[in-house]
Amino acid sequence: MQALCLSVEPGFGGQKFQPEAMTKVRKLRDAFPALQLEVDGGISPSTIDQVGGLSRLQLALALQMSTEPIHAGTQRDELLQTA
């Protein structure tokens, strides 16, 4: 079983991460320890430390908006190792 949790308001890309979304993620994790959790919205190098304990992250826009797109793959790997 898996769940996708939005950490932004639905509608458009490029929004800021809303840290209060992680309260819901923690509640889900406590209630369903085996649940595969994924967060989508506002994940970037500056917010990655706030989203630990997840199974998956949506990072597409963070990588597209990178100031060094040639290094996007390396940035992705670094973000995933940190999470």
Structure description:
This protein has one domain (about 1-80): TIM Barrel (Alpha-Beta Barrel). It contains three helices and three strands. With about 80 residues, it is α/β, with parallel strands linked by helices. Helix content is about 35%, strand content about 15%. The two termini are about 20 Å apart. The protein has a three-stranded parallel beta sheet with strand order 1-2-3, with helices on one face. About 10% of the residues are buried.
Q: Tags for this entry?
A:
83 residues, alpha/beta, TIM Barrel, three-stranded parallel β-sheet, 3 helices, globular
Could you name the CATH class?
A: Alpha Beta
Strand order of the largest sheet: 1-2-3
Q: Nearest-angstrom radius of gyration?
A: 13 Å
Mean pLDDT: 76
- Estimate the helix proportion, in percent: 25-40%
| Main sheet makeup | 3 strands, parallel
Task: List SSEs in N-to-C order.
Answer: EHEEHH
CATH superfamily: Aldolase class I
CATH architecture: Alpha-Beta Barrel
Put simply, the count of helices is 3
Report how far apart the termini are.
21 Å
| CATH topology-level fold name | TIM Barrel
Structural class by SSE content = alpha/beta
Poorly predicted ranges (pLDDT <50, ≥5 residues)? none
The counted number of beta strands is: 3
